[in-house]
């Protein structure tokens, strides 16, 4: 379904992230970008969208908002990306789109998906929220399928506090994406724009890994009282109904910040790889299982995932010692507080994903983590070596 770009229509709110800005449109959040792609593709009632059962709950929520049904396929437990063979096996006559996710910045194995999607007229959508700048066989993720979306939320490779990018590799889909942006989306309130700009400035100047837990609590509190939108409003996590003020554009006041952060992406990726190498060298010496990369993949390590015996206990100890650790994804549809069944996931749908959701922790690589901070994380893990799960043949696909 992919075609060569020929359109000359000026794009609304575009950026140059994949080397050709006439393919991209920006929105208020990454989930809005996905919703826009689905709407532009005409996906709705009686349609089905396949996605990996190891993702954020807002991804199936975006599917539900269109009236379509999300259906989940399992992950490869070594790669933590969706298993393409399982995806192919779950295709039905109602399947209109398949989402592939490049988890933690590791490009997904597409297997037969591209060929099958082309044969059956199914839209192949890449979730690049973790992987902007990664490549597979020399080709940028985001250009491998028919469309792609990415998030600009705090924890991602390129961040403006909140934000999202939609990309269409097909001319007609791109035209409809632009129309959705122009005709059905609103500009964000200036108060939210101003707060996000201020928060970005404060975060870049003052954030340190030792402040992670305190700032996380503060940000969630500010969001819960309505002063500013958090990454997810409570209604987005508790209900499959589309929230008010959902379809919004990126906002003009943060465009200069986005441009500046995009220019820094090569340096950010280099930094994250250097920090990830520190972790991986030590973890390999401890015989700890690491996320597997397929041949031809050049990853951008958003996080370094490891498996542990008792994640809750280890996270609580990390909080006490002010060591930054992450718990993505703590349920097949992260976060665990979201009612999984309400968003279409049934217990046992994706066994490998369910096991990973119980065992995984991830180590930070963002620009606030320097070599000393990475060594501090490893020192903490060294004190809790009994919690770390070694390489286990029984989790292999």
Descriptive keywords:
Aspartate Aminotransferase, domain 1; 397 residues; 14% strand; alpha/beta; 2 domains; seven-stranded mixed sheet; Aspartate Aminotransferase, domain 2; three-stranded antiparallel sheet; 14 strands
The averaged pLDDT comes out at 89
* Order of helical and strand elements: EHEEHEHEHEEEEEHHHHHHEEHEHEH
- Main β-sheet description: 7 strands, mixed
β-strand percent reads 5-15%
Q: What is the helical fraction, as a range of percent?
A: 25-40%
Task: Please state how the strands of the largest beta sheet are arranged side by side.
Answer: 1-10-9-6-5-2-4
Number of separate strands = 14
Category by helix and strand content = alpha/beta
Q: Which oligomerization state do the chains in this entry correspond to?
A: single chain
Silhouette: globular
Rg (C-alpha, Å): 20 Å
CATH superfamily caption of the largest domain: Type I PLP-dependent aspartate aminotransferase-like (Major domain)
Alpha-carbon distance between the termini?
Answer: 30 Å
What's the number of domains? 2
- The CATH topology name of the largest domain reads Aspartate Aminotransferase, domain 2
Explain what the structure shows.
The protein is globular and about 55 Å long. The chain has 397 residues and is an alpha/beta fold. Helix content is 37%, strand content 14%. It starts with 23 loop residues before the first strand and ends in a 14-residue tail after the last helix. The protein contains 13 helices and 14 strands. The chain has two domains: 21-184, Aspartate Aminotransferase, domain 2 (3-Layer(aba) Sandwich); 264-389, Aspartate Aminotransferase, domain 1.
């Amino acid at each position: 379904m992919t075609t060569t770009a020929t359109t000359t229509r000026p794009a609304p709110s575009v950026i140059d992230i994949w080397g050709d800005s006439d393919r991209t449109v920006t929105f208020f959040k990454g989930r809005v970008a996905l919703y826009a792609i689905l709407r532009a593709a005409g996906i709705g009632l009686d349609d089905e969208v396949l996605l990996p059962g190891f993702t954020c709950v807002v991804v199936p929520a975006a599917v539900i908002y269109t009236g379509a049904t999300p259906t989940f396929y399992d992950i490869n437990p070594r790669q933590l990306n969706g298993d393409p063979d399982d995806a192919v096996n779950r295709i039905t006559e109602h399947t209109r789109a398949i989402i592939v996710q490049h988890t933690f910045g590791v490009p997904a194995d597409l297997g037969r998906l591209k060929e099958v999607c082309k044969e059956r007229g199914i839209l192949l959508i890449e979730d690049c929220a973790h992987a902007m700048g990664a490549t597979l066989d020399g080709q940028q993720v985001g250009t491998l399928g028919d469309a792609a979306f990415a998030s600009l939320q705090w924890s991602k490779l390129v961040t403006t506090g909140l934000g999202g990018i939609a990309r269409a590799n097909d001319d007609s889909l791109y035209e409809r994406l632009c129309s959705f942006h122009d005709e059905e989306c609103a500009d964000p309130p200036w108060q939210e724009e101003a707060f996000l700009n201020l928060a970005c400035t404060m975060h870049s100047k003052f954030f340190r890994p030792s402040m992670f837990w305190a700032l996380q609590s503060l940000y969630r509190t500010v969001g819960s009282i309505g002063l500013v939108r958090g990454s997810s409003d409570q209604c987005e996590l508790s209900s499959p109904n589309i929230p008010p003020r959902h379809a919004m554009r990126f906002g003009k006041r943060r465009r200069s910040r986005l441009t500046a952060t995009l220019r820094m992406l090569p340096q950010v990726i280099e930094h994250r790889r250097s920090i990830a190498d520190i972790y991986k060298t030590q973890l390999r010496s401890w015989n700890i299982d690491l996320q597997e990369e397929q041949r031809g993949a050049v990853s951008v390590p958003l996080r370094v995932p490891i498996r542990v015996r008792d994640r809750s206990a280890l996270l609580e100890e990390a909080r006490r010692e002010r060591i930054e650790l992450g718990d993505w994804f703590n349920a097949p549809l992260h976060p665990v507080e979201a009612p999984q069944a309400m968003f279409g996931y049934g217990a046992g749908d994706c066994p490998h994903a369910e096991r990973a959701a119980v065992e995984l922790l991830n180590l930070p690589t963002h620009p606030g983590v320097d070599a000393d901070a990475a060594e501090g994380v490893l020192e903490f893990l060294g004190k809790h070596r009994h919690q770390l799960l070694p390489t286990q043949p029984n989790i292999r696909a």
